[in-house]
Each structure stands twice: as C-alpha cells, then as structure tokens.
Design brief:
Blueprint lengths: L1 H25 L1 H8 L2 H12 L6 H17 L8 H24 L5 H20 L8 H26 L1 H7 L3 H11 L6 H19 L1
Helix pairs in contact: 1-2, 1-5, 1-6, 2-5, 3-4, 3-5, 3-8, 4-10, 6-7, 7-8, 9-10
C-alpha cells in the first residue's frame, strides 16, 4: 500500500501541483525545462534504485527529448527562486512516482493502481478546494478527468510494467509536440524552434525504442 500512496502523492499530487504553481510564478518557458529534467533522472535512477537495466540509448533519447522540450518552451518569463524550487520539486516527484508505481505493480494490476491513484488524489484535491467557490465548467473538467484517468493512466502503468520506468517516462515527452501538431492542424503556424523541438523529441523516442 505504501508504494500506491507514494505513486499518487509524489506524481499527480505533489509534482503536478508544484509544477502548476511554478508556472504561475516564473511562466511556462522557465518552469517546463526545469520540470522536464525528470526525463534525464528517470533514465538513470531506476537502475540505481530498483535494478532496472541502464540503457545509454534511452539516456541519449531522453537528452534529445529534453532539448526538444526546451526549444518548444522558449519564451518570456522571470527567474524567481520560489518558482525554480517548485519546478525542481515537480521534477523529483515525476521521477520517483513511476519508480513507486513499478514497485506497486508487483502487487496490484494497472487498473487497481489507477483507481487507487484517482481516489487518493481526488480526496486530496477535494480537501484543498473546499474553501473555494463553485466555478463553471466543473462537469466538463470531471468528464475529461475521468477519460484521462480511466484510459491513459492504466495504459501508462502498463507501459511502466512492460517497458520499464525509463522508457515509459520518456514517452510522456510526446505531450508537447502533440500539442504543437494539434495547434498546427487548427491553423496556427509553428515557429522554427517548435518544429526542431518536435523533431528532436520524436527522434529521441525512436532512438530509445528501436536501438
């Protein structure tokens, strides 16, 4: 049970909350590169902490993906120590959370782990939001959350079990380029950094998976 709690608390709980607070303080262009250093740490620490095989190609892929995310997220922002610390906390949480998930999956299924993750995080966020007034769009947000948690989270845990922490974590780097591609399909033009960044992220994942 301790690994289930650690997975939820470190990842969706502490890391996500810290990252959002960091964005509010120093902006996404500063918070994202710091937070996404978890790509590097998850390529190294699982081999040290839980004995997963270390792959130099996964590490190279993670480095390329991190560089791509840095390019995509370049923009305005202001460096503030509190925001930097919060982004580092997010990075640590996103690094340790899948390691805890890998250990938890020795005892429970992906669906069970996702269910417990949702219960723990929902309870925590409910307590934090109780003093807040009701806002519009909660129903749509809840529906989106159920779809995301009900589908993507078990699939992610399945990837952690089958591929290992390092490679499964690396695939999450696809989120920024997918957003950029969706934006382009909606009629928005991509700048040079966004195009290069997307190519680097994709190349990094291909290298890690295929070699």
């Amino acid at each position: 049970m301790i690994y289930i709690i650690l997975n939820a608390a470190l990842g969706t709980g502490i890391a996500d909350y810290s990252f959002l607070k960091s964005i509010a303080i120093i902006g996404p262009s500063r918070a994202t590169p710091i937070g996404f250093t978890y790509l590097i740490w998850t390529a190294i620490l699982p081999s040290i902490m839980i004995g997963e095989p270390f792959s130099a190609f996964v590490f190279l892929g993670a480095a390329l993906a991190f560089l791509g995310i840095w390019l995509i997220s370049r923009g305005s922002g202001e460096w503030k120590m509190r925001g930097i610390v919060l982004s580092l906390i997010a990075s640590i949480g996103w690094t340790l959370s899948p390691i805890a998930a890998k250990q938890a999956l020795n005892y429970v299924s992906e669906v069970t782990l996702a269910t417990w993750n949702s219960i723990i995080v929902a309870s925590l966020y409910l307590m934090l939001s109780l003093p807040s007034p009701r806002v519009r769009g909660q129903g749509k947000a809840a529906l989106g959350g159920m779809i995301g948690v009900g589908i993507s989270l078990p699939l992610y845990f399945y990837a952690v079990r089958e591929l290992g922490v390092a490679l499964a974590s690396l695939t999450t780097a696809l989120a920024p380029p997918v957003s950029q591609i969706t934006s382009a399909l909606s009629g928005n033009k991509l700048n040079r950094n966004e195009v290069i960044g997307t190519i680097l992220i994709t190349a990094g994942i291909i290298i890690a998976i295929s070699i």
